[in-house]
Specification:
Strand content: 15-25%
CATH architecture of the largest domain: Alpha-Beta Complex
Largest sheet: 5 strands, antiparallel
Strand order of the largest sheet: 1-2-3-6-5
Distance between the termini: 56 Å
Number of strands: 12
CATH class of the largest domain: Alpha Beta
Number of helices: 10
Helix content: 40-55%
Order of helices and strands: HEEEHEEEHEEHHHEEEEHHHH
Radius of gyration: 20 Å
CATH topology of the largest domain: Aminoglycoside 3'-phosphotransferase, Chain: A, domain 2
Length: 299
Amino acid sequence: MHGDPIVGLKDDLASCLRDSGRSAEPRRIEVLGRSGECSVLRVEVGDEQIVAKIVPASSHALLVQQREGLEAMQVTGTVSVSRPLHDGIHGRSGILLMESIRSGTIDEAGWERFGRELAALHDVEAGSAYGFAHDNHIGSTIQPNGWMDDWVRFNRERRIGHMLDILRSGGSLPADLEYAVLGVMDAMDRLVPARPVPSLIHGDLWSGNAIGAGDGRIVLIDPACSHGDGLADIAMMRLFGGFPESCYRSYFSIRRAREDLDQIIGTYQLYHVLNHAVIFGGGYHGQALSLCRSLLDRA
């Protein structure tokens, strides 16, 4: 650890480990990754391996949101998640301890099982409104989740409109993209179902948040949970790839695909493409514009 900036967080990590009932002296610390101000470590404590996500103390709320999302999915008894073990503010750091997943290769049967598990998650009764108990984050972008009973309005205001407002405030939104996004918002009642049965959704289900475990399971991490149309998870899965067709076939063997599936999926994907434009910049403007035009052709 000599010369590594993580060494400055060791006292905070030791305090967190102590509060969780573990030894404050880890045998080994391995850096798994860094993104912005977040560091992800694998920590060996005695015979146990755990994962520690560490952010500045001022950003601890992001970890609380992820913990609550993981717990919400865990209690359904459907999908597997990286179990949250402890979180808190320690010194200068907000820290979330989670179960460490031993990675492995997933065969076709494993992907089919995950498709069934995801369908089961989306079939769990999740109330009658759309939103979540609190706002959270999709990547580094705040995700507003105030409850609504109108799915069309929820997507128009809490999802697509929210991203449009952020892009406008950044001052670099091309006029043709703004016009196209406004067109999609105006056509929202013709693009998404009016009243889908609310499901608990992961919310950020790209392949990097679906870890293949050594026992053949798919284990989910880093959620941005809300109650909405389960197809929103399918939309994110399809946007960047990484999930085999056998997974989708298994999912839709339980939850029947709609005839207007492509336009629904595309509308939910627009939210994520606009978010990537917010986070990463203008490189995603062209993809967002093309998607808007395709949706407006269908509306």
